[in-house]
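Chapter review: from sequence to fold.
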Amino acid sequence: MTDAQQLAQQILDTVGGSSNIADVENCMTRLRVEVASPSSVDLPALQATEGVMAAIAAGSNLQIVLGPGLVDRVADSLEGLRAGPAGASVSPDELAARGTAIKASARSRSDGRTMRAIRRISAIFIPLIPALIACGLIAGINGILTNLGWLPGVTPFLAVLSSGFLSLLAVFVGMNAAKEFGGTPILGGAVGGIIVAAGVANVTVFGETLAPGQGGVLGALAGGILAAYVERFMRRVTPDVIALIVVPTVTVLVAGSVTLGILMSVAGVVSVAIGTAATWLLANGGAFAGFILGGFFLPLVMTGMHQGLIPIHATLIEQTGWTVLLPVLAMGGAGQIGACIALWVRFRSNASLVRTIRGALPAGFLGVGEPLIYGVTLPLGRPFITACIGGAFGGGVVGLFDQLGHSVGAIAIGASDLSLIPLLNGSSGYGWALLGYGSGLVAAYVVGFVATLLFGVSASVKADLESQSAAPAGDPVAPEAPIATSPAAASAVDSVGAAR
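The token string follows.
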């Protein structure tokens, strides 16, 4: 038995045996073990095991630090030990426990596969958002100063500050992609850097001369992920004594060659297709397309699937300088603000409801809609729908401006509602973009408010809220959001849990 097999066996013994393991994964240095029963894990013994650098338990998840190279071999050995030798006898209890663990793991993998993929992709881009907002704001300020002819000695300085990060965005995407998929960030950055290298202009692939930046963030994303997989494979097959030299060299050589020879061209075609489709959709679909996009954005936020749009926004910004989708989608949050103000007005004697709305509205105006979704509109049921209606009308107004030839775009992502105003731009300049976006906000606020005031509360929920309002002054009032006790409201709350 090799050292890796011995260590895998020791780990298996300390975590409660194969029947207690639901899943095993590993990154470059850590073994991640999901256990069925955390109480069956002997954590002190695991931490004291020779070869284990550290072991941390977080509920049913164990993070076991083993170091590069070794972790890949131990993970393979542990999977083999879990399967057991052919013909080995297993007790009925162990079979039942193993079956339960496998069933739970399979259900988790099946039910959450799409959401896990979205979370992994969003985890690559979310750390970049602060820099995107900062550079976007600086670019917006610089654009306004340039259009007004003010401070001509300062605008070149601001132009450099705003463009430096964006010019190397592919490098940072490659780094984060490699890190998220278990590779070394700097190697992912090296592969992503190929895309923006000036020397790309001297390379011809399939009869086509490449251009620096071709493929953009999508090419860097694919290249960084590929680099992670190549690196992980090489660490498994390379002796530790030469891994430091061989692994990174082969990773950059293989992943970089594939990126240069295939991914840049393919990602370039996809990027152009995304830009063309988004522009065509709003230019031709106009108000109808905006109505649909604005109306369905809140359900995407509720499930977290809106994070999957981040690479699309980044691609559009790379291509045209702004994303035409974000201002339309931002109308969903505006409709929700109108709905919540209507609830405040209609049930202003309900102290719990008013306190929740008053606390969440400032975040909503700054583009953070989750407190209003989970604290007010969704638990009450109908207000979530009327908020979506408000968002749909706001999106329709913005889409109409796009259809009339005055596209409304955002030069950075991560902002929404009022906080998006400094980041606006479009085909007809900032003034038209501000007019289109502002008109959409007003429409979403007003329609969300009126729809909620007229149709936003069912009779049962209204009775619940009014009964809470009529409670004696001495009765304790819960500090959290008012959750109506009607079947409709309970069903809405259950849907949140299922979605999340």
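Two observations follow directly from the output. The longest helix spans residues 240-303. The chain has 20 helices and eight strands.
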